[in-house]
Amino acid sequence: MCDLTHLSSWRNIPSAGLTMLYKALFSLTAIMFCLSLFLAHRVSVLEKDVQKLRGDISQQLNQQRSGGVHGKPAKMSKTGEGMKQSVFQRAQSSLESFSRRVKREQSSCGAPLSFLQLRADTNKQPERRGNITVIPWTVSAQRGSTISQRENRIVVQEDGYYLVFGQVLFESQSTVMGHVIQSWSSTEAETRPTELLRCLQDGTEEACDNTCYSAGTVHLLQGDELEMLIPFRPPALISLEADSTFFGVVQLN
């Protein structure tokens, strides 16, 4: 069952009171309607302000971008290009300086250095001269004209420092084995050889193959002649292979 007591209370309200109530409700409704219109107007104004603000921001951004193409970034681009050109110029200058230095070094060095290496001539047998043994030599490798072969000797055509080297492989047992490299000077009135290098090695019964090697830097004059001599030992056998017995000179300056 519905409670109808409230309806009976409305009936008891005087007509004047109802009229005032209706007016109050109408006034409230009018106020709410006006407030709604005001709020709608403000929202519209705010939307226009927001759109205008967006337009201003977009315009500023476009101006900055256009200024970036024609303004300061362009200067930065020009600066970058200038830096690239500067780096290229420095690299080109360094390359030209290096090229000039190489040319100076080449001009100071002059012609390529000479060398000559002799090997034993397998078509001939070692020759005995008194108490020494002489190996017949033939050219194994050569470059330049400063060092040449004359008979069984090496001849230098320029003053300077030279690397002289020699090796002999002995294939038999002996008490002492070795060789001597000496030079003959064409400037001295008394032609006497000068001993440059010496190699001596004791032979053993266990090892029949023994290599005797010597090398050193010497100062030679134009026309000096070098030769390798081996003290004669009757039981000594000498290997004539190119990789075992050789004699050579290399120009150092």
TrEMBL record:
GO terms for biological process: immune response; positive regulation of B cell proliferation. Residues 114-252 form the THD domain. Residues 61-81 are annotated as: Disordered. GO terms for molecular function: cytokine activity; tumor necrosis factor receptor binding. Keywords: Cytokine, Disulfide bond, Glycoprotein, Membrane, Secreted, Transmembrane, Transmembrane helix. GO terms for cellular component: extracellular space; membrane. The chain crosses the membrane at residues 20-40. It is found in: Secreted. SUPFAM superfamilies: TNF-like (SSF49842). The keyword Transmembrane helix applies. This is Tumor necrosis factor ligand superfamily member 13B-like. Belongs to the tumor necrosis factor family. InterPro entries: TNF_dom, TNF_Ligand_Superfamily, Tumour_necrosis_fac-like_dom.
